[in-house]
Amino acid sequence: MADDPVRDAGEIPGREPPIGDMLAERARLWFLEASRHPFWRKFRDESKEDLGFYQGGKNQWSKDYSTEDYEKLVAAKRAVLSINHCLPQIEALVGYERRNRFDIKAAPQGGEDAEDTELLSWLLKFVQDQAEVPEYRSECFEDGAITGLSCLACEIDWSENAYQGEIVVSVLRPGEECVWDPHSRRYDLRDARYFLRYRWVFAQDLEAEFPEHAEEIGKALSSLSSAMLSTGEHKTTEGPVGNRYGDVRGHPVEDLGAEALFYDPDESRVLVLEAWYRDYEWRWMVVDKEGGKPVTEDAGGESLTRDAAVRLAEADSERLKAIRRRQRKIRMATILPATYQTIEDGPSPYDNDDGDFPFVPYWVFRKGDDVWGLIRNLKDPQRVENKRWSQLVDILAKYANLRIMYQEGSIADPKILEEPFSTAPIPYRAEPGEEVRPPGYLVPPLSELITALRNLAVEMGAKMREIGLNAELMGLKEDASSGVAIARRQAQGELIATRFFDNHKRTGKLFGQRLARRVAQRFTTEDVLRLTNPNTGEAFDVTVNPVLARKLNKDEWKTFRAKQQEAGRPKVLRDPSAMKYDVIIADTPATPSARASKALALIEIAEKFKALFPILIEDILELLDLPNRARVLQKFRATQQVNPAAGQPTGVPANGGGGAPGTMADALQRLQPPAPAVGV
Length: 680
What we know:
Layout: H1 5-8, H2 22-36, H3 38-55, H4 68-75, H5 86-99, E1 102-108, H6 114-130, H7 133-147, E2 149-157, E3 166-172, E4 178-180, E5 194-202, H8 203-209, H9 214-229, E6 263-264, E7 269-288, E8 294-295, H10 306-314, E9 320-336, E10 341-347, E11 359-363, E12 365-367, E13 370-372, H11 379-399, E14 403-407, E15 426-428, E16 440-442, H12 447-467, H13 483-496, H14 498-522, E17 527-532, E18 539-544, H15 554-566, E19 571-573, E20 581-589, H16 592-608, H17 613-623, H18 629-639, H19 664-671
Helix pairs in contact: 5-7, 8-9, 11-12, 13-16, 16-17
């Protein structure tokens, strides 16, 4: 059995596929192509070693994907140390990302959609919390920082709710759970011919998952098992030279080596490919030469056929023109490459997003066929440091024991010199005429050697800090009490980590587009949801896709919404699939710690420039996690009276005088609810 089909596929030749299921044959060839390509072979080996250096211990002794040095030292009972400097650098990067998470939001394309997109943003926030999107995005970021590549999947699971389904998010390990066209060069994989997700499944579980194909699957696997488990096969490549067709008593069996990559007869497990592949279809349309707006559907809402497009264009041949365009579509199939069977095949289940794969990669560093993350360039100094410290400790353990030396007629036991940890005396024989010396001690000259090894190990540790990241550069040092100082130190670290976070934001935007389309497909019936305004923390009810409002035009829709608000009924969000909006990454971080640091910076600015107090106060209150934040903000607005002459709020003196403290911190302190009295 091949536990790692991606790694081994290129080493075992396959047999000729039978004539029949052409899609299964294509998927099998896609898998073998990806497996043999240098991009996936190098990434598979390097990423496994990168992960080992992140985990530490024995894995940090890996060299060319082998821990032979470690095994030999352990077998010889030598000192073996692993001082993990890779883990803290990854944790500093990952910790900064977790403290500064940003939500996915919707931005209006026009002013009339502002209220709808705001409600859609809150709906996206609700879906992100339900599907644990922030946690999965952080996991994807961590995997990418270590290995250089990770992947997010945004799908709908219909196993429980067969009609609407539930939006689910998962993190895939490239090279371990999925591969795609290695010739693709676009970040979003739009130029990829295929995307393959694979898994090993027991034959009985597979038959239970696809009961309508159980008999077909059972027969195919039974036949393949008989061929793979039989002994003494007669192959066309064996036997007498003149009998290449096989003998009359044994049917010739082709080379079944490649089948071991896809099927394990001993445990009855089979590799299942979930193949997402690119297909095309021709679309007819009629273009207005003057207006430029195309017509793609007839009066009944059906796509134009060739004849319908030609007839429509002939009605006004001077202004209208019928053209044909090739449109990209994504299809999905379930394949058994071992038996060349296609279990299911059809269009993408996401009808509003059938032009893209439901997978979004996260790249860090990529040049040609090489992909790497933060760990890749830290491995050499980490190896040197571990080996030099281990060697230093080993030398001290071997030679630091003082052993008495005295003159004797001969060495009693020559093997005593070979025991590095022995403390037994070392007898030696004096030469004729040599003066007999008194007993002494063997003290090897270790000082210079130990100093050199120690300096080399320390130098490698410093090199790792220079190459990678650290907590101080990420603004996480404890003595940075000033908000401005924190921001400046973070800016220095962000300069080094720009690529990590810039690509992370790019992946988040692409993922947000998939998520928004899943929301539009999921909420196709009327639903009443309890959403939360992230700015104020206020919870309210929203009716999504109401039946009464689906057929209303724009003006009727506004009237309907106004009447709903006047009556105090839940807010209304029309059909998300009919809305026009852009997906963006929010400007304000979603985590409390990041909001607090930004609020601290604004407070320091407002303390220095008092005139900015009425401008910044609302932003500061939105960033702070105050109890009853919406009510506090409302009360503050009611108490502030602007002096037209001075342009200052009377509640907070510009110079700090007037019998009331004038600092921003004092003003915020007065807004805090009183602490409960404690009984004495």
